[in-house]
Amino acid sequence: MIEGDVEQRGDRTAFGDDERALSTPVTHALTIAITGLLMITLVSTASGFLTDQQEFAARDEVETIGNRLADDVQEVIGLSNESGSATVYVNQPDSIIGSQYHVTYEEDDDCDTRAHTSDQCLVVSVVDMDVSQTVPVTVPGDVEVDVSRANPSTFKLTAENSGAGSGNDAVVPMSRTMRVGVGRNVDSNAYSEVVDPNPQPPAINNIEYAPGYPVVDTPITFTADAEDPDGTIIDYEWSINDSVVDSGSDLSSYTTTLPPGRHSVTVRVEDDEGLTANQTTTFRVSGVSYNNDLEKVAGGSEGRCSGVNAELSLTNQLSEEVKLTDIYVDPPESVNFLEYGDEDDHEVAFDLDDDGSYDEFYEFGRIDLRDKPDGTFLSLPGDSPLEIDPGQDVGVSICRFKGGGNVEETNFSFRYWHDGVTNRTSITPSNQLISDYSVDAASGDVVVTIDSNRQLGSLDAEISNASKSADLSLSDFTETSSGGTYQYEAALTVSSGTHTVELTGAEDTDGRPAVTLPRSGTATILGGGAYAWQTESDWDAHQSSVGVVHDDYGDYTADSVALGRPPGSVDSSLVSYWPFDGGSVADVVGDNDGIIHGSPTVTSEGISGTSALRFDGEGDYVEVPADSSLEMSDDDQVTVSMWVNKHRKGGWTTRTLFEKDSSYRMALDSGDDFMFSIYERYSWWGDWEDSPKMDIYESTNKYYHVVGVFDGADVKAFVDGTSLGANGAPDEIADASGSGIGIGGSLDEPDQDTNANIDDVRIYDTALNANQVKRLANVTRGSIVTDKRTGSTISKHSDVKVNYEADIDAGETITLTVYAEPDSGSVKSDSVTLESSDSGSGTVSLTGINKDADTFWVRAELNSPSSKRSPELHGVVLQEGS
């Protein structure tokens, strides 16, 4: 037995105070128990956390899917308004976080939530989670909507519209690519705009002009590039001496001629948020003109001196005498000296009476140019400047040039004084042989045009496409000349597709080569065949057409597709429609042609790229004679629609936009506040302080869409598709069968004429609903789905090649998608979006048709950043690619 401090504890023996023999098994047991509890808690917590995260993600997906489907429901309703019946197929995910989900269309109480109250909605719910989303939709009373699943990833949306006109049923396959965001829907809503709370104004560079010293009767080109940091530049407006001279959506440069004297030029740009920026510069235009007659004279019997000399002439086009004091000469680098020869001879001489002999001479001695790469000034003696009378022609001779080089490439500048101010006339002869080069498609040919500053003696070019090429020479071109410019043109008959023409070499008749080559251009010949859409009948055979025009009226043409609202597209009750295009006031729907009073002018700044009428507010208006079709008192319903762009801020006077006296009218209260009123019981109802109205003057470059509606009970006003409210005072329209209509002014109140651009005026004999008014206001987005065409089979192993012709300005787009119908079902290609850089003709290849097919059709979506503009689609042709 071991001796020590021993303590007996039950059945165990402990040695002194050391209890490790007891604590080890107890601690182990406790550790196992605690670890087990912790793991159970951790697993439970992690499981709950994971479930929460899944629900958060599911809610984001549900919100995204619901909002996109709600947008698509609105689109199919819009299609049904055109055709009576429409079906849209859209792709969405087949599951949400691995779980099935349902989408149903509901009405009435099922659509009410704490967030909103609605009569119709979509309900998206996840099967295995307590996650759902109710999304309100707006469905007119005469439309029936059905939402069903065609397959797990495709929804079928159908709208039947009993109040729409007849037409082809629209069946449109569509594809939506879903993006999931955390805490919000990151997809854009096609039926609304998200406005930056702090929009940025456009930035514009300083105005540049060429030539740097403008001369009377010589074109001056002004350039001012601009950009918008958060959007698109939609308008340039050029003013000279405070008068507007031109404006347009893609007008970053402007060319004109100006009289002698001091001038200012201002460019104003506007972006798609209505913000503007300005730049101004001042300059002088010389009144001493160069007669474009610089030539090299070889000397001998032809020239003033025995060597090479330069001869030219100037004309004083001012009404006063000028005094020429200095001549600047900058010849080619190869010219070493200017020297007549003998000491007593003269390097500069002037012919003052245009008789071929020289009258005034100036001696400068030997002028060394070897260390003067920027040329030299020759100052006439201060006591004897050259005096040039008004209208006087003066010949100039400078000789002689020593060292070689082309005298025609010399830069000259003549400084003179007029009315105490110095000015100059600069001559910069072009040393570029080729001044312009273009390749275009015209009448099925590729047309190549070359402009040259001198007659060509030879040229080398090549035309090629994807499979072959051919050489071109000067003999393939026709030569014409005008004003010292030679033009060469060749019309080349080629197959369909995109062709490139490259000019690789050219020489003038003296053997001097062009130094700015090669130059190239492309043109696309659309071709024809079964899969071609480029004529009136092609576009008219469409499956659906929403928000676009392909008809022959106003500025529109039937063989092209552009944004707009054609007659009858919104409602068949349209009585009269005045597009106001090209200065015409003809009614393109009825027989109510207008009569112009005063002198309203035509402006190119109308709606959707069309023209409009500009009224000055001082006697300009259009009269429409009385007609029974314009009398709305029978059914006591009317809708009037137009686009208005105010020139300037109004005063206190009421201005008339549209008025049928003692019946119905649109007006601007205090010159700017839009309102609509009905005449009954000797009073205009709607014309008082608390009536629905809105200020429609924001800038001189903004159009507003204004609509007035009376449905027999309420007077309603709309601006840009948004209701301003209603006034329910009158219950009928007074009979005014003997009264005509005034547009832009009142027939009875001459002081109420309007200073505004007015475009696209329509009148209906029914009350349009809010959805129809909204569609009239939307002219920045439209689409057309062509008819189905059957032709040769295109293999699934090939791309689909699309030849197109389109006009697309900055910010505008055209998106093309090809659909195919194989033996069963339908498939679609990837989409391609054409931008301004693609404007003209071209070829794109689309992938995604993964089955052999011999039936195809095309969907084209047109978009514009501004109601004033529209891209134009002239044609598309499908061919089998590589």
Automatic annotation (TrEMBL):
Start and end residues of each PKD/Chitinase domain: 204-288
InterPro entries xrefs: ConA-like_dom_sf, DUF7266, Ig-like_fold, PKD/Chitinase_dom, PKD_dom, PKD_dom_sf
Alphabetized SUPFAM superfamilies for the sequence: Concanavalin A-like lectins/glucanases, PKD domain
Compositionally biased intervals (Polar residues): 826-848
Signal sequence segment: none
Gene3D superfamilies: 2.60.120.200, Immunoglobulins
Stored Pfam families: DUF7266, Laminin_G_3, PKD
Coiled-coil boundaries: none
SMART domains cross-referenced by the UniProt entry: PKD
Chain positions covered by the region annotation Disordered: 824-848, 863-882
Record's protein name: PKD domain-containing protein
